[in-house]
Design a protein that fits this description.
Distance between the termini: 31 Å
Order of helices and strands: EHEEHEEHEHEHEHHEHHHH
CATH topology: TIM Barrel
Number of helices: 11
CATH architecture: Alpha-Beta Barrel
Number of strands: 9
Number of domains: 1
Largest sheet: 6 strands, parallel
Strand order of the largest sheet: 3-5-6-7-8-9
C-alpha cells in the first residue's frame, strides 16, 4: 500500500513530536503493509510556515534515520496545503510542493468555514494542469450542507481523499457516516492515513482498506490504497486512471457485500 498523506516528519508540524516517535510511526506503517509514505506536513499561513525547501531537507534527513534504523519504508513528499496566496503560481515556481513532484497536490479546505469560490480555485488549478486532491472532506464541520459542492468539484476533475480512520469511527459516528456516503455514491479516489501520532491517529491503512472493501468491493479498495496512489507517484494523467464509479459515465455501482450480510430485521433497526 502507498500512503499519500501522513504527518510523520519529526517536529515540523502537529504530527510526530520527535525522531523517536517518527521512527516508531514508520515501523507501524511497515508492519501494516505500507511500502511508501508521502510525508505531507501542513503549509498553513500563520500557523505552520513550512516551505518546500524545508520539507525536502527534512525528508532527506529522515531517510537517513530510517536507513540507520533498518526500517524499509520508502519516502516521498508533498504538503497538506491550506488556502495560500497565489496557489497555482506557487506550484508552478516550486514554492509549494506537489506530491512526488507530480501534477497532483494535497489541498486542505478550512475545517469550520466554507471556502468562498472553492469551485473557482479548483478550476484555476485544473486549467493550469494541476489536480487538487481534496483531503478529508468528510471531517469538515459543514460537509452535510456542502456535500454537493464537493461532488461538483470532483466531477470537474478534483480528487477526493478520505482519512482511513474516518471509516473506522475514530472521528465519531457522524464522520463515519459521511465517509461511507462518499464511498457508496462513488466519489472517493483515495484512502490515506493522515497519520499524526502513535495513539488515535496512527499511520496505518489495512483495517480501513478492508472496511472500504465491504462497501466498494476488493478491486476498488485496492485502487484506493495502491492503484491510484501509484498513478500519482508516476504522474499519470487523470484520464488514464480508472475513476470511482460515481464519476465514470460508464460506471456501475459495485456489489456491496455488507448490505447482504444482515437480514432485513437487522437492517431495519440499524437504520440502513
Amino acid at each position: 500500500m502507498i500512503d499519500l498523506h501522513c504527518h510523520m516528519l519529526p517536529g515540523i508540524d502537529d504530527g510526530a513530536r520527535d525522531l523517536e516517535s517518527a521512527l516508531r510511526m514508520a515501523e507501524l506503517a511497515v508492519a501494516d503493509g505500507i511500502t511508501m509514505t508521502a510525508c505531507t506536513p501542513h503549509i498553513y499561513p500563520g500557523l505552520f510556515e513550512n516551505t518546500h525547501a524545508g520539507i525536502r531537507e527534512a525528508v532527506a534527513s529522515f531517510r537517513e534515520e530510517l536507513k540507520k534504523a533498518n526500517i524499509p519504508l520508502e519516502l516521498t513528499y508533498g504538503a497538506d496545503i491550506q488556502v495560500v496566496p497565489d496557489l497555482v503560481r506557487g506550484l508552478q515556481d516550486g514554492t509549494l510542493p506537489s506530491l512526488n513532484s507530480s501534477r497532483y497536490f494535497l489541498f486542505e479546505p478550512p475545517h469550520h468555514v466554507p471556502l468562498p469560490r472553492m469551485a473557482d480555485l479548483i478550476h484555476n488549478a485544473l486549467l493550469a494542469g494541476y489536480v487538487p486532491v481534496i483531503t478529508h472532506p468528510e471531517r469538515l464541520t459543514y460537509i452535510e450542507s456542502d456535500f454537493d459542492k464537493f461532488v461538483g468539484v470532483a466531477r470537474a476533475g478534483a480528487w477526493i481523499q478520505l482519512t482511513g480512520g474516518s471509516l473506522l469511527g475514530r472521528f465519531g459516528p457522524r464522520v463515519k457516516k459521511i465517509a461511507e456516503r462518499f464511498l457508496e455514491e462513488g466519489y472517493t479516489h483515495l484512502l490515506a492515513s493522515d497519520g499524526h501520532n502513535l495513539k488515535n491517529r496512527t499511520p496505518e491503512l489495512r483495517e480501513a482498506r478492508d472496511a472500504a472493501a465491504l462497501i466498494v468491493g476488493e478491486e476498488e479498495a485496492d485502487r484506493l490504497v495502491q492503484g491510484r496512489p501509484a498513478a500519482i507517484i508516476a504522474n499519470t494523467a487523470p484520464g488514464e486512471v480508472p475513476l470511482p464509479w460515481g464519476l465514470d459515465p460508464e460506471g456501475t455501482r459495485p456489489f456491496n457485500p455488507s448490505s447482504r450480510q444482515k437480514g432485513w430485521f437487522a437492517r431495519f433497526f440499524s437504520g440502513e
